[in-house]
Amino acid sequence: MLDPDVSNQRVDIWLWHARFFKTRTLSSKICRAGKVRVNGLKITKAKTSITVGDILTFPQEKKIRIARILAFNHRRGPAPEARALYEDMTPPPAEIRRIEKSKVALRDRGTGRPTKNQRRATDRLKNIFPD
């Protein structure tokens, strides 16, 4: 049940109510580790107060989530109720992959460290053709 009477809430409780994290302890740890940003500002306290319209940026599993707060809830309800608490502003995965690939230098296949088999073949060649 959405709570229209509440004007602000703790960030760790809201993350838990919105079902981004399985437990409130996990959401508190993420906040205390300084991995959550509220409107672009890094926070280090789980008790930081948030209001409707704030934008949260935080890591979840292997991706960065961006969510705009639309409402507050007085309990941790079912998933459809939790989805009504926020607007997901996370860019689609295709855009993220394109950005990540542009940062990584391209390398030809097989140009990394030699395998054990390749090293032994090189050693055999060196013994056949001494300097």
CATH third-level topology: Structural Genomics Hypothetical 15.5 Kd Protein In mrcA-pckA Intergenic Region, Chain A
What is the 3D shape?
A: elongated
Query: Which range does the strand content fall in?
Result: 15-25%
List the strand order in the largest sheet.
Answer: 3-2-5-6-7
Query: Could you spell the SSE succession in H and E letters?
Result: EHHEEEEEHEHH
Supply the number of helical segments: 5
Mean residue pLDDT: 86
Parts with pLDDT < 50 across at least 5 consecutive residues: none
Question: What does this 3D model show about the protein?
Answer:
The protein has 131 residues and is α+β, with helices and mostly antiparallel strands. It has one domain: Structural Genomics Hypothetical 15.5 Kd Protein In mrcA-pckA Intergenic Region, Chain A. It contains five helices and seven strands, in the order E-H-H-E-E-E-E-E-H-E-H-H. The protein has helices spanning 11-17, 24-32, 79-83, 93-103, 116-128, and strands at residues 8-10, 36-38, 41-43, 49-51, 55-60, 63-69, 86-88. It has a five-stranded antiparallel beta sheet. A two-stranded antiparallel ribbon has the order 1-4. Helix 1 (11-17) crosses helix 2. The protein is elongated, with a radius of gyration of 24 Å. The termini are far apart.
